[in-house]
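Ticket reopened. Same input as before:
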Amino acid sequence: MSPSTVRVVIVGASYAGASAARTLSSIKLNDDTNVQITLVERRDHYFHSIGALHGAVFPRFSKRLFVPYDRLMGSNVSHISSLSSPSSSRTSSTKENINSNDDDDVSTSSTKIENKHVTICSELVETHPDHVVLKNNMKVPFDYLVLATGSDNNSPAKTSSLKKEDGMQELKGFNDEVEKAKSILIIGGGGAGVELAGEIGAKYNTTGNAKDSSAIKKKIVLAHSRNKLVGEHLSEAFTKDLKCKLKNLGVEVVLNERLDLPPDIVFDNKVNTRVLKTLSGREFNSDLQVCTIGNRINTKYLETLELAVDAAAAAAAAKDLDSVSSLHLVDPTTNMINILPTMQLANPAFPHIFAPGDVNNRSKVEKKASYAYGHGQVAAKNIEIMIRAGFHNVRSSGDKAAIKQLLESLSLKKCRNPINGAKIPLGPKMGTAEFCGITFSGVIGNFIMWLGNGEDYKLSRTLSLLGYSPKELS
Ligand SMILES: Cc1cc2nc3c(=O)[nH]c(=O)nc-3n(C[C@H](O)[C@H](O)[C@H](O)COP(=O)(O)OP(=O)(O)OC[C@H]3O[C@@H](n4cnc5c(N)ncnc54)[C@H](O)[C@@H]3O)c2cc1C
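Engineering reply: fixed in the latest deploy. New output:
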């Protein structure tokens, strides 16, 4: 490795990680410093989650949800995969080091990557202050790290499959079960539950007239434990408009009813006729039950770093030093990463580690692709500023006073404050929007939804981020 190579590792390549990778891969430095990006993503294709529920109900769209990563960082890129996927240039299951000069016992062989950037299809399992360890046992050292691992949702909102073919099969399988079911219970009236109800209603029950019961092909019930749909931060008028539009799509919305679910119940998205009761004793008989609750933040890989922080803090306290903060990296109640508005970890021991997107502890309002994209850009811009200032060299010198002084002198970018609001599509032609407490209902809501998502659920924007045009992957 040339001494002027700066190593940036980005983990997670969805809205936040891809935007960071795209922004950083286009920076031009004046000196001979070479920025090498290693992008680690467990999926073999980008998954366009904004269109997931539409694709799960209208299978023609599902194949378009998976986009290759090969153009994201330009053409000078090596691809390494530990999945047996035809799109990978080679497979790897051995323990490997990327451009690492040290002899840590995690690695048993060393692979020199000559290309400028690298994408690795594997999963991050351990994080350390200067390197990460992947599921395929690769150890990847870094000067700067971007953790953009977002969250997982129950299928079909996000597929659990890592390979494109399996993901398409998963969405098709879901659609087959919806086809078979005469009655469907959707559990949870968050964004995913409401959207799914709208998609199924739009496909099977479209009447435009709530009184035309002959057009109702599927009985759909959406059960929600709270009195507002989507989020408590939204108005009652927002819920009212959604309820009215869902009714026109043949969806019965039941609010303030929490299902009393047996602890061993499994929702596998397969037809299974059963009766579920709410805590108040109300019964729902359905052929298919889809559970949309339970968003899981992906931060398990930070346990190693958290342990290191705790150990260092204990040692520092024992010596009565103030050098290491024990500030939790991850909020123990939400599992989200505590960050500063600059996207750096809030713990001052790690100014070189960033966490943009859904994975961080910014507000619920900010859990959107558009904000994740902006977070990724802020992280990338700040890494650029730090690279230009030679922060990585100062940090590797270990001179704490110099590190602090340099950090304080930098004008790092901060993410913008979010606008309170939401836009929820109900099938391709309807939706409700709200911004700053103003609800756009009726046909205006439908129009705003169409304006925001287009007919392709913002796919063309994602394609352009990944270097493709809509025609190429239609
Ligand atoms: C059904 C649905 C509809 C939505 N509709 C909209 C909408 O219309 N508009 C909007 O703005 N937002 C929408 N959202 C929200 C939006 O999708 C999220 O805010 C956005 O995906 C967050 O992006 P992210 O990059 O932070 O994380 P994610 O999209 O969650 O991506 C995280 C990435 O990291 C990878 N990863 C995770 N863990 C690891 C690991 N350990 N190692 C390697 N890789 C890992 C994952 O495979 C994934 O690719 C919707 C979400 C859903 C589920």
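The longest strand covers residues 34-41. Residues 5-42+77-115+122-153+296-409 form a domain with the FAD/NAD(P)-binding domain fold (CATH 3.50.50.60). Please confirm and we'll close it.
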